């Protein structure tokens, strides 16, 4: 399965509501067969510009990164589900390239 990263912006909410939205998102991933590797909370920040989603204007949001493996066929349904979630301002899925082992770029000289 390919590796993906979900960059997720949630609307600014209190901690319990934010936790519930993140849990809902991760459960949606796992229900569809994804394997979640890591999740990182990047905190609440000002959005780069005001965004309108579900008839609400947002100027602040909480940013999360979710690293996961899944079949490419489930991505469309996943994004459709996330776009319908009223707490999600912007979901973006990016394909992550597998890291190659570090090697020396120059040959050893004697």
TrEMBL record:
It holds the Pfam family Ribosomal_S6. GO terms for cellular component: mitochondrial small ribosomal subunit. InterPro entries: Ribosomal_bS6 (IPR000529), Ribosomal_bS6_sf (IPR035980), Transl_elong_EF1B/ribsomal_bS6 (IPR014717). Signal peptide: none annotated. One of its GO terms (biological process) is translation. GO terms for molecular function: small ribosomal subunit rRNA binding; structural constituent of ribosome. Belongs to the bacterial ribosomal protein bS6 family. This is Small ribosomal subunit protein bS6m. It comes from Poecilia reticulata (Guppy).
């Amino acid at each position: 399965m390919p590796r993906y990263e979900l960059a997720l912006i949630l609307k600014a909410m209190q901690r319990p509501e934010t936790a519930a939205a993140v849990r809902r998102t991760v459960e949606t991933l796992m229900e569809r067969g994804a394997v979640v590797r890591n999740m990182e909370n990047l905190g609440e920040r000002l959005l780069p510009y005001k965004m309108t989603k579900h008839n609400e204007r947002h100027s602040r949001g909480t940013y999360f990164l979710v690293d996961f493996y899944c079949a490419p066929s489930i991505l469309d349904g996943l994004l459709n589900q996330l776009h319908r979630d009223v707490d999600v301002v912007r979901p973006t899925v990016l394909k992550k390239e597998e890291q190659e082992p570090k090697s020396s770029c120059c040959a050893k000289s004697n």
